[in-house]
Design goal:
This protein has about 120 residues and is of the alpha+beta class. The protein has 4 helices and 4 strands. Helix 3 packs antiparallel against helix 4.
Amino acid sequence: MSDEITLTGIRAFGYHGVYAHERREGQEFIADVVLSLSTRAAAVSDDVLDTVHYGELAEQVAAILAGEPANLLETVAERIAHAALAWPIVDAVAVTLHKPSAPIEVPFGDVSVTIRRTREPA
């Protein structure tokens, strides 16, 4: 059994997309990140060093959203998952990346991609 830390609605302006106008004009992207980990040591010690500092992780996620452009949401989500798994305490992560202003020709509320990744065995 594992615990979860959830960050919802991390927003940043980025330039991801397959179309030239998306790369030129940019748009807002939103990420939700769910970490699977044990928080037992942190609960006992009451020390942020025994868990994931979610403020620092949120800054990393925002930097990825605003950072190097990618064609696909899948690529950006993978970068976020990699950053989350860099925290040694994290066993698995689910990343949902939203693109609410995607260039879709019919009315829609949101488009998102969700990926799930686990730590690779050593």
